[in-house]
Amino acid sequence: MISVLASGWFWREAERLDQARFSAAVTSLVEQLDSRTERYAEQLERLGEWTENRPDISAAGWNELVKKLEPQSNLPAFVELTYATNTLMPSRAAIEKAQRSKPLLSFLESPRLEVAHRWISGTTLTSDDTQQWLHTSPVKACWWATASGRPSSSPRRLVPHAHADPTPAVSLFVPVFATDFLELNEFKPENSRQLRHHRFQGLVIGTISWKGFLETALPLANEQVDFDAFADADGPAKIRPEAWMGASSGNCRVFAQGFNPRFQTIHKWPFFRNQWQLVFYTTQRFDQHSTRYRAWFALAGGMMISTVMAGAMAVQLRARLRQEVVSRELQSTVQELEATRRERERLSHDLHDGTIQALYALQLGLSRAADQAAETSPSLGIRLTEYRRNLTTIIGELRGHIVRRDPDEGPQTDLAGLLTALVERMRCTTETGLFTEVSHDAAELLTSEQSVHWANLAHEALSNALRHSEARRITVALRNTGSHVTMEIRDDGNGFDPTALPRTGVGLLSMKKRAASTGGTFELESLAGIGTRVSVTVPVTREPRSQLET
């Protein structure tokens, strides 16, 4: 009896472990698919940005953009890259005239896209094929994504090949709007929706072979768990043969007669503003690696042997289950770290190629202006030279953040010094009196992370006061009250009604978030004609930094 009970318990535990193995495999496959789709979207968005910055693209210019993208290595699953232009986009002058004369822009007729440039790989698609496909009703419904250009996906598409059957594919659409879209939208924000139709410049299309995508997203096939994908033309995909993303001449295992896997689940997968269905199921290899059959050996071994074996296998099962959990958590952590690293590298490249280059150009302009002004107005030349030095310091700090790989690199930040330097740097740019009341003892009680956030918060508050308050005197204070450390930026300017501030203000929201991330309390007080006070307070929870270092 004990042997029978032990064997039954072992069978149930083995079943639970197999279910956990199946769930872990499904999670891993979905995460790999998500990671690869994001990679393809980033590359296609780059092509969309290049295209938007160069509205009139020649054939040579298109070839140059494709060469920069290197689709053969960066996007091996792409079989087609196309740029289609909107031939019905009205001129800017016509839109400005309509905005001045009408309360709301009228909706235009449906845009007419003409294929302008293409790149293909391993397909016999022609420009006419793509042109005709673009203007089918289900595909036209996918043109419009957000104004920021995030891609949307098309319905299932069969792509012809010269020496093979047509292969299922799906296209990603990145809408390209005229560069003056945001500028015109500010003219009459209520026209935003209609303006997207008026300034729809064209469409960047990237067609992905599903087979090629799987070969790059899942280079090592999972022999124990497999899946089939389904994508419909409209709305959430339905599990039917017409929506299957497998080989056009093959047979879908989900619909095969006698298909009865041990475990099966349906996963709804969002694929760029479309919803697919992924049917995951186990294979024969999965059952071969199952431990449930060992229960029969325990039952045949007798009462004593059965009891011992069941106990040992129970320990083994629990250990393996724990190992699966730890492995899944470790894999998730590694993927998050890798995603963070890629995002930091992308931001570093964007800052280096865009912001720093613009600052360099501004620095050269200031240098020339300072040299010219020194001959006619020495005082103006001195001030321009000081501006140039401040800009050089800012460029150096920004380059230091880009080059630094480890967030802990660099010297410990001293908030007292940062605030003093900030006031000194801004003092030469304004006639307003800038003063500091900074306590070095208070700065010693803050961590490096708190100091960095507070310095940025002070910069934002001081900039707002200089730009909007028309104050005669602005004071930046940092003090220690014994139980709390408080930083305060106050002015004697015009003041305002804090309740009337727009809820979408980025600066105020940023200051609140910075204060909250340091464990502090943010306050904003202002009275018309009296002035404004911005403060952040944090309780003292540590010894001074100098004592901690010793």
Can you put this structure into words, describing what you see?
The relative contact order is 0.08. This protein has 550 residues and is α+β, with helices and mostly antiparallel strands. The protein is globular. Helix 12 packs antiparallel against helix 13 (378-403). The longest helix has 74 residues, at 303-376. The strands form 3 sheets. Strands 1, 2, 3, 4, 5 and 6 form a 6-stranded antiparallel beta sheet that branches. A 5-stranded mixed beta sheet has the order 10-11-12-14-13. A 3-stranded antiparallel beta sheet has the order 7-9-8. Among the domains are: 47-217, 2-Layer Sandwich (Beta-Lactamase); 414-549, 2-Layer Sandwich (Heat Shock Protein 90), CATH 3.30.565.10. Strand 8 (264-270) and strand 9 form a beta hairpin. The protein has 18 helices and 14 strands. Helix content is 51%, strand content 19%. It starts with a helix and ends with a helix. It has helices at residues 2-53, 59-69, 71-74, 92-101, 127-134, 137-140, 181-187, 192-198, 210-217, 284-288, 294-300, 303-376, 378-403, 415-427, 440-444, 448-468, 506-517, 545-549; strands at 78-86, 113-120, 152-153, 157-159, 167-177, 200-209, 225-230, 264-270, 275-282, 433-438, 473-480, 484-491, 521-527, 531-539.
